[in-house]
Amino acid sequence: MTKSNFFKSVLLLSVFSFFTACSNDDDNTSGTANLETKTFSNLYAPQTGGMGTPVGGEFTKFSFSQNAVVTNDTWDIAFRGTTIIVNGGTSIGITDEPTRTGNGAVSIISNTLDAVTTIPNASTFNQDGTNTYAIPTGSGNGWYNYDGATNLVTPIAGKVFVVKTHDGKYAKMEIISYYKDAPANPEATSLTRYFTFKYVYQPNGTNF
């Protein structure tokens, strides 16, 4: 090979490598290629009181990025009984409420988890505030229905919660069960206050 042909080969290889690298970068700009649907089972959310007495007890705090219950300020949502709060906004004014240190918010969508592929408009997101929950409490108004005859709490099908995390990322979540081990047909004797939910965490803050 002549010196001229050698340099031409090197140049062509460099150009090919450059465009290959650019193509790979373009393929991953959406950040959706490696997203994973995860299931977190049996998150225990006990409370004290209830049934006409003051409710209290520490909230169980959860981090989507860590896929774990946490005890520090990196939490995104927190659970106690049927109450779910977000790490954003201001104090609700309830007993044993954790301090909000983040910018979390929630947008509620009627759809399936897989069908939610875009981040909702910013105007649809709500934060907690005085006597206000981003995820409303109460039967039929938030994430569940309560049957007084059977004393059962059932997640409302087709409710997806898009959570803006404490640090400005996003996760979409669907609550599957309020009973330990998520029985298909829970009974009044089933162990309660054990959340099972599916979610997808988007670390790039873009669409799902």
From TrEMBL:
Residues 1-23 form the signal peptide. It comes from the Bacteria. Keywords: Signal. InterPro entries: HmuY (IPR025921). CDD domains: HmuY. It holds the Pfam family HmuY. This is HmuY protein.
